[in-house]
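idk why but the lab printer keeps eating my pages so im just putting this in chat instead. protein + zinc ion:
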Amino acid sequence: MKCPICRHGEARPGAVTVPLERGDVVIVFREVPALVCENCGEAFHDEAVTAALLKQAEQAVAAGVEIDVRRFAVAA
Ligand SMILES: [Zn+2]
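predcted complex ->
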C-alpha cells in the first residue's frame, strides 16, 4: 500500500521492534509483523496485531514487569 505518512514510499510486509511504555513499565516487542514504508520507515500494524500488543503489554504490567524484551507472538 502507499504510505499515508510520507505519501511517497510503498509500505511492504516486514517485521519491526515496537517499544511500549505504560507508566514506569517498558516492554519491547521484537519481530512484530508490520507493513514498513521503504521511504520513511514508518511501520503500520493491523488491528489484530495492535490488539495483541496491547493485551500482552497489559499482562506484563499485571505480572509486575518493569522492563522486558520479548518476541512477539500473536497467539499469546
Ligand atoms: Zn512513508
